[in-house]
């Protein structure tokens, strides 16, 4: 554990109303932490706050659009007034569009970038303004295997995650140069069973779905809590599928391009289902769990096919073991790709 941080801690989580943010809020609360919940949806935030209190934590819910830098700064000030100095800031909020790049409007692409990339920038800026003068604190960036490997139909999201990766490395280097004890770390996630696939704007003929293997949000939450307690590592990669993807991309990116071009359109849509003729609710411009919406919770509709494997969290502490297994899988995948070529 990072001895630089007190117990219990004041933790801020963006995108806390659903999915990984919601599960992470419960996990921090189970540690007895005070949890500030930032997001746009009132219903989701209220549900998250109730779960934090049930788990033994103290909750402060604040509706905030993370693309608004001043709103994020104001929220950080409210957190410190209401819960105390911020010890951990978790950037997790995002949105996206499932569609070919040529079918995404300029305003839609900009909106994804402002929320998914600049939202992390805004949150980190607000956190560092408070942490750096105190010379303690941790910022956790919730990332994805897509921070390294772009896939079709998610160009705006992949672009934002790639941007976060490069920007976070710059910030980390600057903190190290200054000799600061403030730390940033990034958690690269696999596909996770969250409600996003029912509320992200989609122009695909079938219903959007995560690419198998799919993990439960609690797996991601354990990784986020672990990273917050052990921020010395620059990055955590959760799940053998994440590591295998990144290794395959490093060994044979061109072959992987062709493989993903052939498989990822079908892999991101439910087989045998079609999108409704009626437009599905989308959280691109407004939350679907707002005042007139409902609380979606942490889980999506894929519970029956999702993994909640403790081993994936244990292997965070033994990255060499995870990498060795993933390397073997990636080598086999590259062999298959070459044969198909």
Summarize the structure.
The protein is α/β, with parallel strands linked by helices. It contains 12 helices and 12 strands. The longest helix is centred in the middle third of the chain and has 23 residues, at 155-177.
Rg, nearest Å: 19 Å
Q: Helicity level, as a percent range? A: 40-55%
- Poorly predicted sequence stretches spanning 5 or more consecutive residues: none
* End-to-end C-alpha gap: 47 Å
Average pLDDT rating? 90
Q: Structural class, from secondary structure content?
A: alpha/beta
Could you describe the largest sheet, including whether it forms a barrel? Answer: 7 strands, parallel
H/E series:
EHEHEHEEHHEHEEHEEHEHHEHH
Tally of contiguous helical segments: 12
Percent of residues in β-strands = 5-15%
Instruction: Tell the overall outline.
Output: globular
Which sequence of strands runs across the widest sheet? 3-2-1-4-6-7-11
Instruction: List how many beta strands DSSP finds.
Output: 12
């Amino acid at each position: 554990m990072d001895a630089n941080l007190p117990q219990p801690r004041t933790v801020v989580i963006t995108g806390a109303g659903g999915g990984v943010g919601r599960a992470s809020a419960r996990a921090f609360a189970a540690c007895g932490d005070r949890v500030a919940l930032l997001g746009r949806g009132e219903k989701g935030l209220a549900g998250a706050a109730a779960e934090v209190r049930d788990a033994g934590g103290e909750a402060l819910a604040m509706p905030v659009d993370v693309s608004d830098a001043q709103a994020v700064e104001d929220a950080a000030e409210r957190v410190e007034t209401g819960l105390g100095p911020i010890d951990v800031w978790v950037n997790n909020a995002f949105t996206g569009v499932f569609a070919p790049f040529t079918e995404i409007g300029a305003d839609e692409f900009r909106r994804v970038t402002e929320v998914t990339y600049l939202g992390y920038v805004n949150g980190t800026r607000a956190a560092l303004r408070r942490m750096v003068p105190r010379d303690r604190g941790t910022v956790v960036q919730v990332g994805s295997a897509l921070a390294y490997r772009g896939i079709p139909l998610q160009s705006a999201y992949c672009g934002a995650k790639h941007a976060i990766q490069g920007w976070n490395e710059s910030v980390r280097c600057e903190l190290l140069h200054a000799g600061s004890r403030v730390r940033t770390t990034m958690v690269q996630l696999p596909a996770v069973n969250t409600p996003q696939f029912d509320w992200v704007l989609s122009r695909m003929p079938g219903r959007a779905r995560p690419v198998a293997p799919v993990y439960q949000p609690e797996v991601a939450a354990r990784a986020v809590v672990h990273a917050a307690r052990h921020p010395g590592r620059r990055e955590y990669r959760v799940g053998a599928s994440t590591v295998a993807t990144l290794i395959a991309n490093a060994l044979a990116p061109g072959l992987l391009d062709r493989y993903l071009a052939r498989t990822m359109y079908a892999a991101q849509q439910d087989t045998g289902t079609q999108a409704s003729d009626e437009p599905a609710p989308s959280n691109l411009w407004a939350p679907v769990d707002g005042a007139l919406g409902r609380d979606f919770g942490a889980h999506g509709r894929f519970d029956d096919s999702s993994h909640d494997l403790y081993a994936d969290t244990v292997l965070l502490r033994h990255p060499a073991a995870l990498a060795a297994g993933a390397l073997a899988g990636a080598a086999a995948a590259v062999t298959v790709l070459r044969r198909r070529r």
